[in-house]
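Complex record, two chains
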Amino acid sequence: MRVGLFITCFNDTLFPQVGRATVAVLERQGVEVDLPLSQTCCGQMHFNSGYRDECIPLVARFTDAFAGYDAVVTPSPSCASMVRHYHSTVARLAEERGRARGLMDRVAQTGPRVYELCEFLIDVLSVTDVGASFHQKVTFHPTCHSRRLLGIGDRPERLLRAVRGLELVDLPRSESCCGFGGTFAVKNPDTSTAMGDDKVHDILDTGAPVLTAADTSCLMHIGGQLSRLGASVRVLHLAEILASSDAAAVVST
Amino acid sequence: MTTDTGSPRPSAPTFLGMPPFPDAARSALADRQLRANLRHATTVIRTKRLAAVEELDDWEQLRLAGAAIKDQVLANLPRYLEQLEAAVSRAGGIVHWARDGAEANAVVADIAQAHQAREVVKVKSMATQEIELNEALAAKGIDVWETDLAELIVQLAGDLPSHILVPAIHRNRAEIRDIFQRMMGQVGRPAPDGLGDDPRELAEAARLHLREKFLRARVAVSGGNFAVAETGTIVVVESEGNGRMCLTLPQVLITVLGIEKLVPSWQDLEVFMQLLPRSSTAERMNPYTSTWTGVTPGDGPQEFHLVLLDNGRTDTLADPLGRTALRCIRCSACLNVCPVYERTGGRAYGSVYPGPIGAVLTPQLRGINQHPVDAQTASLPYASSLCGACFDACPVRIDIPDLLVHLRAKVVDHKRATRRVPTGEQVAMSGAALLLGGPVRLAAGQRLAGVASRVLARDGQLRRLVGPGWVGAWFRSRDLVAPSAESFRAWWKRTRSRPRTRR
């Protein structure tokens, strides 16, 4: 199986350790991972902010970069849902405007082969126990796009529960949005921060020293508010926990 | 915004001239009492709704049916409207067509004046609030009395509604007692001496105050939750019984109805009578459902007028995706689950339709499909983190996040077409698109960011950076993880490229 890693521009630039952890998790399962270097961005920020014209070349680039892979795996449910749900909308617009001919067909071929990491592990590889160990209390924030848009359900929790030594602490009101919302965070900064404040206090109330989620974008926002408060909660992407083992300590750099 | 002054008549504020959402939200967010009231109320309703919905194992099928019926109506609206008009006329009602609020208001005022009415009683209605009927009638010297408990509170306080179903959600009971004590006596029967803030006492005070008005008024104005096209029957769904009073006691009844409120048949109504109460008040069935068809000699109002209101709905209909917002049955489930609404309250939306549905409905009713809109209206599609809770809760499956993004594109396209100088946001977005246009540019940008963060970051975080626009907006309340010195792709190339390139 040819597996292409869709790292996302966000992780590529800000959280390279998440990419390294994702590669480690997949390779431990015997998956040979390839990184097509022509990839840049799925276009979500432009699309969700109303800049659809700018989105067209990004979608075209994405489909070209990942054509020919049996599966495309990404450590971002948010970007995965952009590809699976909205690339077709962009492609339709492109055809309407006479740009990027044939994009609809290409999108229809690539989209269904894109998997978020938890989906790929559980649904494609049929693995729940990835052989990780992590000896700490962890609380988990189910991000909105993972639950509601992509519908990955409790897959992240199932993976976390199988990690040796890990104690999963329930996060109160976990279904409530953290307030990131892409450009919402800067176009409505006060509301975004108010939502983040409540999330941060719920996290601190759990007493867990580690917060994890399947999406780094939400973690960047929550982590940014935790850091501003001087809170000592460690913020880790799910892949970083799944990559850690007694032999290879967490998040090697 | 709240004007609790002791004027002889409650003032009639309007949403006109409200600042854009981010600014309006800022003042709401600073009001700790408001946030506590909202959090409590939305959490209670949210939990109850979930329980009410979970009782039905065919809830998803009901949602699908509700959406399908509404879509069918919207796709054949002219036919159903003419069918309704014919049925209402046959049953002795008089049908009026109003292109906009001004026309509808004029129709209602003319009817009231023809009966020398100097006051009207009102059933809670979103359509009449949308067209600011109360203000229009007041300008002609006609007093309008809201008879829904929460609307009464809002009216007495000279306040603006902040929720579709519970418009005084932003008030707690102590505030309500104060409003009753201060204002009731100025417009009718005063609140009883020594009024407490027990809900039963407050309701009794309202009952006594309103009873006098029900018995005196000769003209009533209502909206309608549904209109059954096949028989010309109007349906009002309510909880308090005030609606039943208005619909039966006065001699003249005027109903203002948005043209999207139709259902083809009574059998279709069945679906919505299951969807609406559970979604709005979390009840299996609401206490009062009134239905009437034209006039019945010797029973109830002897003159019935139906005002069919367009006011932007036909324009909304023109957009195949945008029109799904017209499925809305005003249950307000989306408000109650919305994390943005929970923090800002309804008034920040600057419209009688607040919350997620307001953010997609208001801009369309105000014409975003046809022309650029004002800054306040243009800010509404952005008043969401796109978390999707509204779509999950919507009983007629309006994909609100999808619509928000769809309307954002209209805002951007209008700006592009009308502005000579691009906004800062447009420049930033073009810049980002350029940077992401290819791997060489992206890698160069990443290297630059890595160098910059080595200068600016402390302990891997960028803290309190000062800058214009989005930079300042982020760093006012949050740190940012510093871009790594080595991007992922750089690491990959360094460690993997040579021996393990593409097969």
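Note: Chain B touches chain A through 67 residues (CB under 8 Å).
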